[in-house]
Write a structure and sequence with these properties.
This protein is an alpha+beta fold. It folds into four domains: 223 residues, Beta-galactosidase, Chain A, domain 5 (Distorted Sandwich); 146 residues, no CATH class; 111 residues, no CATH class; 145 residues, no CATH class. Helix content is 32%, strand content 17%. It has 17 helices and 26 strands. The strands form eight sheets. It has an eight-stranded antiparallel sheet with strand order 2-3-4-5-13-9-8-7. The longest helix has 26 residues. It comes from Lentinula edodes. It holds the Pfam family Glyco_hydro_63N. Keywords: Endoplasmic reticulum, Glycoprotein, Glycosidase, Hydrolase, Membrane, Signal-anchor, Transmembrane, Transmembrane helix. This is Mannosyl-oligosaccharide glucosidase. Its EC number is 3.2.1.106.
């Protein structure tokens, strides 16, 4: 963590966890590989400092290897002061412990500082903090002579912290610092005496208490600075040094650039070298920030089996817990390795985001993506349910508004993990082809961009592309995923015969549970216009997701040899596709719609042009010769409906609710939905023969360019990629950096759908 020492107020804005309230100019991993390490650049205009953090993994030994980190800073504006205090802290919970080996000194420490520790998982280890060669401390200022014995030194603290509270390290450390500061500044209350420079007062107390499991080391800098942190596992028998970082980060950057250009090459249609170089830097950053935003979470969550809205109370009792407990309760602890939509605003796992994240992560590192996917699959409970938000433990809960903490076990979310599974199966199939067959990219005058995976399946991270390894993995997830699929079909089923609806299948209709009067949070499209809540509602997006889910289960079953299951899934998929036509197509409106029930128990369509009405097209469920495809493409390309210069709007510009209320899904542009549209065009409607092939190609070219150009422009203008984009100006808005599914721009740029 760090704060400026140009004034006393800056400590109240100590930077630690990613927080939009810090109003940093920008921060991003510019290069990051989960197997090697990376480089992060942070621009803090308030404190006039650009921080660069470099992280390097060094394999060795039997307990996870070693790592090294370098923290360095320089003024953003060289003509202005840049005075910074940094605090590096370390802590441990559970079995084991940490001690400071360096002898304590009452007025601070000079030179290297060393800690040693041990735990059952890590065995013996040491951590050293080493100053760079040319750091300068703040040495002058009011009353400097009084504090001369402490100036230019590192200061420290150590204290015991209760189990489960290390995550609150910032509060413990700053409390210790402020307690000492209040004592030190007391003699200077008289304005005539003058107040000492903040660098002399805002210091840790240089005390370590018995039983400490939280330690902190504080440094002060004036201008440019650098220090290194080395973690050495005893079993590795290695000693790291500054040259380890000098050489290792250089090698990491070179290998990252080479691999990135191979996996995610910027295509030839961006031919200007300056533009191409800038796009590559941008693409590397958003990919790195997505992967660098992966976190490991552990803890319990809050669920409430008994809650329901009145229109959901017909749900089957078998999917409620047998527990007699009323109201919210804590679950048993669970673990999750997951990407996060936004480190600053959504630092936790989101079910429907994760499928999109894994498309990108899996394209970079298949094995890492599957490790994340397996953790999500392991969350599927005995009934087949997965909470849509994974808020595991007190630290995760501290970032979530109270009204969103409790998860309800009959609430679903778009099953996007299926998208990640399908993409993985496709990569395995392509990797098994010869180079000429593997080059499946399209050429609309832009050049092919698909890199043959036959060349990379032996590289680190691609072991899972071997068909035997892939088959073993898919067999391992098949049963819980099938349980999850059955849960969806059982708990989210909609009603057909009760309202005299005519459909070829009497079973395949679906309704999101858990909606409120104005929101369908479970759909992911929170405030998108819907009809009034009713037990007889049928939701177009959910039945479309279930068609895709059925298709994915069929593909898995075929891959692992479960042929009878594959036939069954194929039959369900066909029944769903038939019912999408029978229950959701409105001939008069020439669009797909939700269905609802009026006061006379008659079924009617609720039609709202926007992302919702595109779902059968967006998920490639329609055939290229569908009689409905032309009307859908008309809506997509119409500037008075969904088309804008910056991407497709979430709601038609002609809709009466466009841009009203919360305006979350009532117009703003979402990159992941545009990605689905582009993927449908690129992989199906612009390549397969049909009456709209040429038009699909034209729309694809224009839409792809609009999305890339606008997200890139806003990144250069603001330093961030954003949760969504204004459909009228293209400006980024809401959460940032949002390198969850907005990072799909890299896949759009390199045409990996």
């Amino acid at each position: 963590m760090w704060f400026g020492t140009q004034d006393y107020a800056s400590i109240s804005q100590t930077r630690h966890a990613c927080d939009q309230g810090d109003q940093l100019q920008s921060y991003t991993w510019t290069k990051y590989d989960p197997r090697e390490g990376g480089v992060q650049v942070i621009k803090d205009a308030r404190n006039n400092v650009q921080l660069t953090t470099e992280f390097l993994k060094v394999p060795g030994g039997d307990h996870g290897g070693n790592w090294a980190a370098r923290i360095k800073g320089e003024p953003l504006d060289p003509l202005q002061p840049s005075r910074i205090s940094t605090i590096f802290y370390l802590g441990m919970e559970g079995l084991g412990g940490i001690d400071m080996d360096t002898d304590e000194e009452d007025n601070g420490l000079q030179g290297d500082i060393k800690f040693t520790g041990s735990s059952p998982e890590l065995d013996d280890f040491s951590i050293r903090i080493v100053d760079g060669p040319s750091n300068t401390a703040v040495t002058s200022g009011p009353h400097s002579e009084v504090f001369k014995d402490r100036i230019g030194k590192s200061h420290f603290m150590g204290q015991p912290v209760p189990a489960g509270n290390i995550w609150q390290a910032k509060e413990f450390i700053l409390q210790s610092l402020m307690k000492r500061a209040q004592e030190v500044i007391a003699p200077y209350r008289d304005p005539a005496a003058g107040i000492p420079d903040p660098s002399f007062v805002l210091q840790l107390p240089d005390e370590i208490y018995s039983g400490s499991n939280l330690y902190a080391v504080q440094k002060f800098f004036d201008g440019e600075f650098q220090f290194d942190v080395f973690y050495e596992s005893a079993s590795s028998r290695q000693t790291l040094s500054s040259s380890t970082l000098d050489e290792g980060i250089t090698a990491l950057s070179t290998s990252f650039d080479q691999r990135f250009n191979k996996v995610f090459p910027t295509p030839s249609d961006y031919s200007s070298k300056s533009n191409k170089d800038a796009l590559e830097t941008f693409s590397q950053a958003i990919t790195s920030n997505l992967i660098g935003g992966v976190g490991y979470f552990y803890g319990n969550s809050i669920i409430n089996e008994k809650f329901s809205y009145e229109w959901d109370e017909d749900d089957e009792a078998e999917d409620r817990s047998a527990s007699d407990e009323k109201g919210p309760r804590l679950t048993e602890p669970k673990k999750l390795l997951t990407a996060t939509p936004s480190r600053s605003f959504f630092p936790r796992g989101f079910y429907w985001d994760e499928g999109f994240h894994l498309l990108h992560i899996g394209a970079w590192d298949n094995d890492f993506g599957l490790e994340i996917l397996k953790d999500w699959i392991d969350l599927i409970d005995d009934n087949g349910w997965v909470a849509r938000e994974q808020i595991l433990g007190e630290e995760a809960r501290s970032k979530v508004p109270a009204e969103f903490l409790t998860q309800v076990p009959n609430y679903a979310n778009p099953p996007t993990l299926t998208v990640a599974v399908t993409a993985f199966i496709n990569r395995v199939k392509i990797a098994s082809l010869g180079p000429s067959d593997a080059d499946l990219g399209m050429d609309f005058g832009m050049g092919s961009s698909q890199t043959p995976l036959t060349e990379v399946k032996t590289e680190p991270g691609n072991r899972s592309l071997d068909p035997e390894v892939a088959t073993a993995f898919l067999k391992g997830i098949y049963k819980p995923l099938k349980r999850h699929y059955d849960w969806f079909r059982r708990t989210q089923r909609g009603q057909i015969k009760q309202y005299g609806r005519k459909a070829r299948s009497r079973t395949e209709a679906y309704r999101w549970r858990g909606r409120s009067d104005k929101h369908v949070l479970t759909s992911g499209m929170d405030d998108y216009p819907r009809g009034p809540p009713h037990a007889g509602e049928l939701h177009l997006d959910l039945i479309s997701w279930m068609a895709l889910f059925s298709r994915t289960m069929r593909e898995i079953a075929e891959f692992i040899g479960e042929n009878d299951d594959a036939i069954s899934y194929g039959e369900i998929e066909k029944a769903i596709l038939d019912n999408i036509e029978d229950l959701h197509w409105n001939e008069e409106q020439q669009m797909y719609c939700d269905a609802n029930v009026d006061d006379d128990d008659e079924s009617y369509h609720v039609c709202n042009k926007g992302y919702l009405s595109l779902f059968p097209f967006m998920l490639s469920l329609l055939s290229p010769d569908s009689p409905h495809l032309g009307a859908i493409l008309d809506v997509v390309r119409d500037p008075e409906q969904l088309w804008s210069d910056y991407g497709l709007r979430s709601l038609s510009a002609s809709h009466p609710e466009y841009g009203t209320g919360e305006n979350y899904w009532k117009g703003p542009i979402w990159v992941q939905m545009n990605y689905l549209v582009l993927g449908a065009l690129h992989n199906r409607y612009a390549v397969e023969e049909g009456p709209y092939k040429l038009r699909a190609q034209e729309i694809y070219r224009e839409l792809r360019k609009n999305i890339i150009d606008n997200v890139f422009k806003e990144y250069e203008r603001t330093g961030y990629v954003w949760e969504q984009y204004d459909p009228n100006t293209g400006y980024g808005q809401r959460s940032h950096p949002f390198t969850g599914w907005t990072s799909l721009v890299t896949l759009i740029l390199t045409e990996k759908y």
